[in-house]
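Progress note, sequence design subtask.
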C-alpha cells in the first residue's frame, strides 16, 4: 500500500509508525481512513493534540465513543468531520434541494439498495460497512431522527458477520425508510428512491451521467365525484432528468474539510451528524442481534 502511494506520488513523505505523526507539530489537520475499530483511539489522540480531525464512516462503533469525540472537539475548539460522502454528492444535493423547495411534495417514504458481490469484510458486517451512507442520506432528506429501528439479516459465509441486512426506520410522523445492504448479491446496485406526494425521485449512482430521474407520478384527490373510485385518480406525467455537476464527490468532501479548517466553519457532516448515524447503527445492530425486535432510539 505504502509503496504504491510513493510510486504514484514521488516525494510524498510516508510512514508506518503513527507515533511519528503524533509527535510532530508542523501540521494542523488529519484525515483518518483506517479500520473502523481504530477510529476512536486515533481520532481521540489527534484531537487531544489540537488537530482538526476528519474521520471516515462510521465515525465510531459506540455511542459513548461518539459522545466523547464530540466533547473533545468542543473542548479543544477543533473541527470534527465525518466522511458521509453522499452528503457532498451533486446528485444527492440536487434532490435535497428539490425536497426543501417542495418540488416532491410531502415525503412519504424512502428505500435504498446498496449491494454487490465481493469485498467481504472479516471484522464488520454489511450493516456497518455499507449502511452509514444510506442512513446519512435518509436523515438528510427526512431532516429528522427515526423513533425506532427494525433490522434483520443473516450470516451465510462467516459466523457472526452478516452478509445481507434489511433495516427499516420508522419516524414519529409516520414516514419510513428501508435499507437493503449486501456483499453477497449478483448485481452491483447503488440506488435511492424517494417517494413524495407530488413527485418521485430515483438516484442511481451506477449511472455515469444521468444519475437522477424525477417521475411526475402521484395520486390526485378530486373534489367532484359520485363514487369513491372517482375520488382518487392516478397521475402519470413526464420523466425529468435534471442536469448535475460532474464533480467527484470525494474531491468536494475533502475541499469542504479544508475550507472549514481554513475559515473556522462547522462542517455539514460534523461530529454531531456522525453521532446521529452511529445512534441509528447501534439501534439497528441491537435489533439485528435480537432477531428483528424493534429498538427505540
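Output:
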Amino acid at each position: 500500500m505504502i509503496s504504491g502511494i510513493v510510486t504514484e506520488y514521488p516525494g510524498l513523505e510516508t510512514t508506518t509508525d503513527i507515533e511519528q505523526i503524533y509527535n510532530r507539530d508542523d501540521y494542523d489537520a488529519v484525515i483518518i481512513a483506517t479500520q473502523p475499530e481504530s477510529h476512536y483511539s486515533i481520532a481521540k489522540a489527534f484531537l487531544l493534540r489540537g488537530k482538526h480531525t476528519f474521520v471516515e464512516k462510521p465515525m465510531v462503533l459506540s455511542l459513548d465513543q461518539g459522545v466523547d469525540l464530540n466533547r473533545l472537539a468542543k473542548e479543544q475548539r477543533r473541527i470534527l468531520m465525518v466522511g458521509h460522502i453522499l452528503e457532498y454528492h451533486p446528485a444527492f444535493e440536487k434532490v435535497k434541494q428539490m425536497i426543501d423547495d417542495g418540488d416532491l411534495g410531502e415525503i412519504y417514504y424512502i428505500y435504498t439498495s446498496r449491494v454487490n458481490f465481493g469485498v467481504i469484510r472479516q471484522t464488520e458486517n454489511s450493516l456497518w460497512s455499507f449502511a452509514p451512507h444510506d442512513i446519512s442520506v435518509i436523515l438528510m432528506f427526512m431532516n429528522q431522527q427515526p423513533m425506532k429501528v427494525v433490522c434483520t439479516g443473516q450470516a451465510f459465509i462467516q459466523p457472526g458477520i452478516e452478509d445481507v441486512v434489511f433495516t427499516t426506520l420508522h419516524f414519529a410522523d409516520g414516514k419510513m425508510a428501508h435499507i437493503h445492504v449486501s456483499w453477497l448479491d449478483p448485481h452491483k446496485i447503488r440506488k435511492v428512491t424517494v417517494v413524495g406526494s407530488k413527485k418521485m425521485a430515483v438516484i442511481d449512482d451506477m449511472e455515469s451521467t444521468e444519475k437522477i430521474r424525477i417521475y411526475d407520478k402521484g395520486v390526485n384527490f378530486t373534489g367532484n365525484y359520485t363514487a369513491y373510485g372517482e375520488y382518487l385518480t392516478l397521475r402519470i406525467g413526464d420523466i425529468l432528468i435534471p442536469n448535475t455537476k460532474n464533480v467527484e464527490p470525494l474531491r468536494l468532501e475533502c475541499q469542504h474539510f479544508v475550507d472549514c479548517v481554513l475559515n473556522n466553519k462547522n462542517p455539514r457532516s460534523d461530529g454531531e451528524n456522525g453521532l446521529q448515524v452511529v445512534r441509528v447503527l447501534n439501534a439497528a445492530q441491537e435489533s439485528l442481534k435480537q432477531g428483528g425486535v424493534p429498538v427505540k432510539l
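Residues 147 and 171 are 5 Å apart (CA to CA). Work on this subtask will continue into the next period as scheduled.
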